[in-house]
UniProtKB/TrEMBL annotation:
It comes from the Eukaryota. The lineage of its organism: Eukaryota, Metazoa, Chordata, Craniata, Vertebrata. One of its GO terms (biological process) is visual perception. This is Rod outer segment membrane protein 1. Residues 187-211 are annotated as: Disordered. The keyword S-adenosyl-L-methionine does not apply. Keywords: Membrane, Sensory transduction, Transmembrane, Transmembrane helix, Vision. Belongs to the PRPH2/ROM1 family.
Amino acid sequence: MAHYKDTEVPGHCHAKRLLDELQLRHHCCGRHGFKDWFGVQWVSSRYLDPNDQDVVDRIQSNVEGLYLTDGVPFSCCNPHSPRPCLQDRLSDPHAHPLFDPRQPNLNLWAQGCHGVLLGHLQGLASTLGSLLAVTFLLQTPVLLGLRYLQTALEGLGGVIDGAGETRGYLLPGGLRHRLRTAWLQGGAAHRPAPGEAPPEEAPPGEDPPEA
């Protein structure tokens, strides 16, 4: 927003077009609302009349020497509004007849672009996640079929055109056999090996009687 006026500055010359397209496409104004434009100079100094006393007073009244107004760019205007767009002097209740500045949503976009963009990105992320989930579900039966085909070909000795009957499988011996083997291997890992068993201590012998 601070570079909206820099239409001839290299690196920022497209900021105005991008912001105008953003606000028009997503029906938003400013970051959190239209009043955000009141705190930045969005009118280029090359379009200001240095002989106009109002312009001079506004620049001198600002510590940073900026030309701040209570107006917004044209892209903040709601084209569905029944009246012409009101862009300037929005804080003055007497500047525009029959216009209530407490209800600017009747003339300007009420939402800020920050929240609108977050909602848009969250929607894109949700759509992408759904596409990935559907792709995974579609690929699962394909992978299972390829596994059955691989094991069936192994039963034929790898000959694709070989004659004979064979059966495909997912896991050697079946799922129950694999689980049982894993459970037995896990139990055996916790048992000490026969050669590693600690030697039993011999019972203390009786000392021979002294002569």
